[in-house]
Design a protein that fits this description.
Elements lengths: L24 H24 L29 H18 L1 H10 L4 H25 L8
Helix pairs in contact: 3-4
Length: about 140
Amino acid sequence: MHPILGSLSLPLGAVTEGQSLADYVPVLVMLMFAVGFAIALLLLSWALGKKSAGNPIKETAYECGLQPITDAQQRFSVKFYLVALLFVLFDIEVVFLYPWAVTFKDDPSFMLFLLGEMVLFAGILFLGWFYVIRKGVVDWAKD
């Protein structure tokens, strides 16, 4: 027994008394082959690739068709923020569907109650969504 580790059990795949480090030589060879192959491909592309003088216009960052360097005080419509906030709100609410589905699957004793709770939850979600649609928050054509 090891004086520091005591009687801790080793995870599966750990080196035990019947194994030696020589059993891991194929893994080391495969790792060396993978690294060597990656380095060889990088060197080949560098050596055989086409060299160009470069074009500063073509090498600028592309940001959705907008200039990457603009005025820091650029104004955005509030609708961008409202849509982002609504996305986060509805996305987080939908996250609650997963634990419900697991509980619904594991505990059949009160399935009808759980189904009713989820119908109520989804109904509240849809009421909120209809309210958002009715207020025209996601109607981009009005601007």
